Task: structure prediction
Amino acid sequence: MAVFVCAGCDAEVSQVALPAEVHQRWGNGVLLPVLVAAGTYAVEPEPSGPPWRPWSEVGSEEAEKRGVYAPVFALSFGAPGAVFVAPGDTRGTVLIPERCGGFCCGLDGRDGPNLACERCGRAVATRIDDCSYWQSVRLDPQAVRGLPAPDPTTGSGPREGRERERERTSPLDQYGGWSPRWEAAAGVALAHLLVASEGRAVAVPDGLAAELFRHALDTLLPTGRPAKRVALAGPGLPAPDAGVDIVLVPPRPWTGRAWQPPSTAAVPMTADIWLQLTSPHRELPVPVTGGMPDGVFRDDPLPLHPRRLFRPDWGVFLHTLARLPAVREPWLRALHGHVRSRPYADPF
Result:
C-alpha cells in the first residue's frame, strides 16, 4: 500500500476500499456526490479507461485471461491500478480543453485523461463529474507515483479507516428513494449470493436484509428444494448457527479484504451498510436524556420509508457476476444472459 501526500503540508491521503458504486451510472440527469471521501483514495485493480474493445473483438478466451468470464459490452485496455481521489484533493493540474467530452452537465472521461500537470503539461488524470456519474478524479498509474506507506502501527491510514468504519450510510437518497450506494452494494452482494447458492433457494433473515435481497433471490432462484440459510456474521457478532450455509460479512473499509469465517461461504457486504443490517439505528429528532415518565408515550414521527420496492443495481450486478469464475456454470450463465437482455425486468 502507498500513501499520497500533500506537497504543501505533508497531510496523508489514506487508502480505503474501492467503493461498490465505482462502476455505477445512476439515474438520469442526477448530480451524484463524490465517490471517495476527501483525504482518501481507492485503487482499481482492473484496467480502466480508454482504449476500449468490444466483446466481439476480444473474444471469450482473451477475456478470461483478463478475469472476465461472461459477455460484457466492452473491455478496457487502459492501464490497471488507477487511483481514485476526491476532486478537491487534486492540486497543480489544469484541464485539457480538447478532452473535455461529456453529456450535458460535465465531464465523463470518454476522451481519456483530461487533466494535465500544470508544470510540465503531461496528462496525469481524468476528472469525471457529469450527471449520473459519481464525481472523482482518476489518477493515471503510469503518470503519477505514490510514496511508501508508513509503519501501520504509527501511520494515520488504519486509524482513519477505523473512524470511517463507524460511519453509517443512510438508505434514503435526497428524494426519499433508495440510496444508489445501497443499490450498488446490494448488486455486488447479490452476485456473490447467487454463486454461493449453487442454484438452490436462499432464505435470508427477516428485517432490512430481507428487504434488500429476498425479492431478488426469490425471483432469480428456483423453489422446491431446501433453502440455504443466510445469516449476518462478523466482528462483535456471535458465531453463526450450525445450520447456516452463507454469511454476509463486512470487508475492512480501508483494504476491501473481507472478514472470513471458517467453513462457511462468505458474501461481502459494504462495511457501513453491514453495520446498518446488524445494528439498525435511527437518529431521534431531538436529544433525549433520562427516561419517560410512567403513562407517557413517545410521539416521535415514524421513520422515513422509501417510496418503492428495493432494486439492486443491475449494472453493478452484471459487472460483478461477469468477473466471478462460477458464472461459467450453465445455470448461472443463462441467468446472466437473461438479466443482460432484460436489465430493467423484475427484480431490477
